[in-house]
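Reopening this one. Same input as before:
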Amino acid sequence: MPGQAARPLRLIFAGTPEFAQVALQALHDEGHHIALVLTQPDRPAGRGMKLQASPVKQLAQHIGAPVVQPRSLRLDGKYPEDAAAAQKAIAEAQADACVVAAYGLILPQWVLDAPRLKCFNIHGSLLPRWRGAAPIHRAIEAGDAETGITIMQMDVGLDTGDMLAIEPLMIEPTETTGSLHDKLAALGALMMVDVLASAAAGELEPVPQPPEGITYAAKIEKQEALIDWAAPAATIARRIRAFNPFPGAHTAAAGELLKIWAAQCIDFDSNKINTDMPKGYVLAQTSDGIDVLTGDGVLRLTELQRAGAKRMAAVDFGRGQTELVGSTLGQST
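Same output, byte for byte:
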């Protein structure tokens, strides 16, 4: 969609993490009036577990936008007083539109109907593939060749609204969730600026999502990042990239936790592999990496992190005291 000049709109912005912060900054820079920001309540973070504002709240405070942080938006839910306060703030905002990006709360119908032009969502996948909470992680984990951004008109379903703009993006072979996140955040911000221009001009052309190809991107759970060495090397390599930077793929190694940040499948002399070797057996440890036997093939670990230490390349890891050859990763003792 080509860039368009748009009159400034009064916006409600709902989002929480850095992905959403990028879009909020772009909308502010475009000259739109941020009449209200909805974001998740402050959460404990860091070693001291002190309450920390979300990236979106931090930016909202910097640009002088009012912020509300309801625990729920359901008027008949567990926190009706939060929802009622948010309802009052939303009504007073008199917004033309609401932009939503990785907010973390479900918007009930009364929120969707509040703005004049309704609510638009920036979603990090090519809908209807990867509806749900973790589309970037799941696309990499599944080995998808491409993903992208979909801007949709929100409804009460889970990422089921009509599409307003869609833009694909290739997933590079070494892409991590962290690197892909940054590309998609920037792309989504640009697309949202253009969609708002079309909305202001009355030129939106909603397209229903196709009924075929629907998949769901379940929320990432920390326990998923424990490496199963019985899986194929290619599968493990994708999961390592998918869980970088969060929650970080890990395994037990010589009695300690070892996080794996980068790895690659390699060709290995099958004559050097004994069929009795357990999965996770360390075949070699060199400056190029640590070669590990998997359920199908050999995986070379190239960036690692001991507990309490910094990430390091294999060449630096090899200078340490740990000698892993002949041990089996994944064993706690």
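So the earlier flakiness isn't reproducible anymore. For the record, The chain has a mean pLDDT of 94.
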